[in-house]
Amino acid sequence: SAPAQPPAEGAEGTAPGGGPPGPPPNTTSNRRLQQTQAQVEEVVDIMRVNVDKVLKRDEILSQLDDRADALQVGASQFESSAAKLKRKYWWKNCKVSFLV
Prior knowledge:
- The protein is mainly alpha-helical.
- It has one domain (24-100).
- It has 1 helix and no strands.
- It is rod-shaped, with a radius of gyration of 41 Å.
- It is found in: Endomembrane system.
- It is a single-pass type IV membrane protein.
């Protein structure tokens, strides 16, 4: 292979070895910055969606908790009514047994 020749005068911007000129360093860093900013924006969008989902889930769990509390109150009332009814018919049964 032929040895590499130094660039000729006036050949600024050519890559070593005579290849096509590479992008200026400033353009490369700008491209990297834009890529990084795009990635950051994507992550921020994903985080916003996740936060929205968490808030929605919290709202649903709060509603579910309220419904569970209401069911607990209803169950307590049912137990109380059932106990009263049981006592009532137990006494009624005792009276009938006593009369017979």
